[in-house]
Amino acid sequence: xxEDAAQGVNGExxxxxxxxxxxxxxxxxxxxxxxHYGLGVFEGIRCYRxxxxxxxxxRLPEHVRRLYDSAxxxxxxxxxxxxxxxxxxxxxxxxxxxxxxxxxxxxxxxDGAMGLNPGDNAIRVAVIAWQWGKYLGExxxxxxxxxxxxxxxxxxxxxxxxxxxTCGDYVNSILAKREALLxxxxxxVMLDTQGFVSECxxxxxxxxxxxxxxxxxxxxxxxxxxxxxxxxxxxxxxxxIEETSVTRDDLYIADEIFLTGTAAEVxxxxxxxxxxxxxxxxxxxxxxxxxxxxxxxxxxxxxYAQWLSYL
Length: 311
Fold this sequence. Notes:
The chain has helices at residues 33-37, 60-73, 82-95, 138-143, 170-182, 225-236, 248-252, 284-297; strands at residues 13-16, 19-22, 40-42, 45-49, 55-58, 101-109, 123-130, 145-149, 187-191, 197-200, 204-209, 212-215, 240-243, 256-261, 265-272, 275-276, 308-310. The longest helix has 14 residues, at 60-73. By secondary structure, the protein is of the alpha+beta class. The relative contact order is 0.16.
């Protein structure tokens, strides 16, 4: 399970710096500043085929807003208006003939000056869309995945500001993910510098015990859009959910644990550090929220229709 390193990403066209170009022509110079120093920001967005056979992007305005927030945090002046980029995202899906798929807007610093100060290097923008299945595998969605507590700590809130999706931050995630895979697990659970549970390499985490749901507070974690979706939906269902500190041993004695993220959607964890979680399979609350999530993104729940932007 997990992201298949052998799975290629390809399509027909990519939007780059204001125009659509052929997929194989979307190139950058080897001296691109972000390639060397990691300062860039991105988003991960999903489009779903809906129950009425249309296509809709889930929570597009929130994703675009976070992209621009990330850019602002990192002092990157995006040369296009947010409204224009939202239209480009929808058009990119159409031009690549994708009824559903994954969309990656990317803001990065172009070539020119080298060194830590990029000077007046151009701020460049790309939008890419491709087909992408279940990030942690179809089996993982139903049966649950295996995870380990990583030896790598999550970023301290003032070592690297955590509200933005900054490209270079994900080196931390890559190290944790590769360690987990090499040790035979599917995912890594990361602690913050105080030893409390933070998030996984690319997902937020939720813990269920005695019918109550807990999730780490904002601070060392990304304010995930799927995370906020699940929090609202759980409260609308009348479930008790709290944003609070979570310890490592809270994980071990949980009845259920699940992850959320645009790529991972809602994925259960069945085992952490060789300890079965609850019954060792997807629990009833996780399954209930998972089903509700897919009803929403696939357009079967009119109460949340405002979260869908149709092509």
